[in-house]
Amino acid sequence: MRVAIAGAGLAGLSCAKYLTDAGHTPIVLERSNVLGGKVAAWQDEDGDWYETGLHIFFGAYPNMLELFQELEIEDRLQWKEHSMIFNQPDNPGTYSRFDFPDLPAPLNGVMAILGNNEMLTWPEKISFGIGLVPAMIRGQQYVEEMDKYSWSEWMKKQNIPERVEKEVFIAMSKALNFINPDEISATILLTALNRFLQEKNGSKMAFLDGSPTERLCQPLVDYITARGGEVLLNTPLKEILLTEDHTVKGFAIRGLNGALEGVLTADAYVSAMPVDPLKLMLPEPWKELDCFQKLAGLEGVPVINLHLWFDHKLTEIDHLLFSRSPLLSVYADMSNTCKAYANPDRSMLELVLAPAKDWIGKSDEDIIAATMAELEKLFPNHFGTETSAKLLKYHIVKTPRSVYKATPGRQACRPDQRTPVANFYLAGDYTMQEYLGSMEGAVLSGKLTARAISADQQQTTNTSASLSAGNK
User: pTM value?
Assistant: First the structure.
């Protein structure tokens, strides 16, 4: 069975991988010249890599970890000590840690929270713990029901002091969806907290040992092509062509200057594009279908990722850091955390600017100036002196529409991987699955899409066999 897939991000490549496992032949079309979509990376003229985002792998990512095992590349994940590290804005240059001991969950998470006396008081810890009880007892059903509230609203509802949000959850909210707690759905943070508290290594983090394009996406392509599939770069989808009954007849491929280059035909078709370009691609007859109409409630959130190379070391910390800055979300010194970017003498900071709504249209110079002002607060010992760290170069990657903006009510807008169109399917972290918009969500969605296609094909085969037997 031939399956055409539009998009070579993690959702599209994962879908193709699991289709080949089921004996099908996927053909993946990618509009750009780089694999990865929202995890794409590029090399500059010096050979240095810069990426679309600061990509962190969690212990609570079972489908992603299974994928690494199946590709036999588990050794490429560089696991860090089981901690969460926050900057302390009131004491620049210092950090506050939540260290998870080697105990079963949720005891290790409880001990990590109780062991930190710098960010939360004991009454705040107790109030927060009591507030989480319904989520821990009722599980995912309760978590989904809370999608009607923002995180700020949910905390007020649970009588959790506002300072808990300020101290911890502004940083976590920006890390998870690049927006603030008064915007983000309570479902997003509760999903993450449930995973972190109920799985011993759920919040443990790993960095890839190099660029996602080379170290994760290329092994996926190698796996797919070794089993008869294809992955075609520089092959943008121009139009979804329909038959008279409004099923898919083919994917029209755009050539130079928008001209039609050809038509790819298959037995089934998958959009593994982000939700925003998918909405633009929808054929007119489909726009009246409820499945596609509710996509109007989903749109990508703007994100800015920065890479800054300095002439000497700013930090020796080998971990993700929550900046607690009004401008920045999370950051890491990739010269410490990533084997391929290692440098014992110089720092390369990778930082996420969030929320980015008011910055996405600004110049690189304005963004760098504002970022440097924040770094002077984060690293006061390295700036403002004769031996100040000097910025050698930088790269800024702007993504005007990244993962879907997870405001309250978005869960109802997330579609299934199957659509009402018999031979058309969806893959992407915005589709309905148990994880939020993330690398794990993308991989799981691709796996679910492949399963749906295989199950539908098997059902069609069985139906045809039954009809054939009945006609004898």
Answer: 0.95
